[in-house]
Amino acid sequence: MIRRALAVLPLLAILTLAADANAQHDASGGSTLATAPAEARQFDFLIGQWSLDVRPKVSGLAARIHGAPKFTGTWKAWRAFDGWGIEDELRILDSSGGLRSVAHALRVFDVAAGRWSLTTLDVMRARFTPSSARFEGREMVVTATAKDQDGKDHLVRVRFHEITATGFRYEQARSYDQGKTWEDPTLRITARRTAAAATR
Q: With bands split at pLDDT 50, 70 and 90, how would you rate the model's confidence at 52?
């Protein structure tokens, strides 16, 4: 996918990319970093293959009558970008095994900004969403700007927490007041490791 994208870049854009690479300096303003910094391993907890228990927030009469829908899924991730980040794919399935969502993410550590830069493709809706992330204490926190079903702008916050070698928890919440207050999580995922390495 990356190879195809580079193939269509004009020569000027490729030269610009080369020039921009020189902007990745170490903290002292010295030479360009030749290898990825230690921070580029902060998402390593995601590398491997995972089985998922997916719990979306539901409300209303239908939810009270029928209960919360049950979803499962898989998540797989592998190291990418010469050690500067990872690439991963999330799939969510309904109770009958039907595919409900596919998300493909590219995550790279931005030394100059001191944070992660992410781009996630919602495959079934052909929609890209940029976001950023920081490791805060024992949690990885991702933030992005999005639109809800009514076209209303809001912030999205994702927390990866309770991270261990065998599992982690994921919570997604939204805010309509620029992060002053957050609604209860709209999505919760419990992940359990099924393999240490992922096949693409």
A: very high
Indicate the DSSP class of residue 126. T
Per the document, the length of the chain is 200
Question: Which residues on adjacent β-strands are paired with residue 192?
Answer: 51, 167
pLDDT digits (tens, 9 = 90+) for 24-49: 434 444 346 789 999 999 999 999 99
d(CA 175, CA 171): 14
Helix (H) or strand (E) holding 13: helix 11-21
Phi and psi dihedrals of 69, rounded to 5? -65, 150
Closest CA to 39 of 144, 130, 110, 127: 110
Tokens standing for residue 116: 């992660």
Q: What is the pTM of this model?
A: 0.79
Question: What separation in angstroms does the CA of 12 have from each of 16, 17, 20, 108?
Answer: 6, 9, 12, 23
Which domains are present in the chain?
A: 42-195 (2.40.128.20)
Pairwise CA distance, residues 144 & 38, whole Å: 24
Q: Answer whether 51's CB lies under 8 Å from 174's CB.
A: no
- Strands 115-122 and 48-56: what pairing? unpaired
Helix/strand/coil percent split, the chain, to 5:
20, 50, 35
For residue 130, give both structure tokens.
Answer: 């940029």
Question: Residue 183 carries which DSSP code?
Answer: P
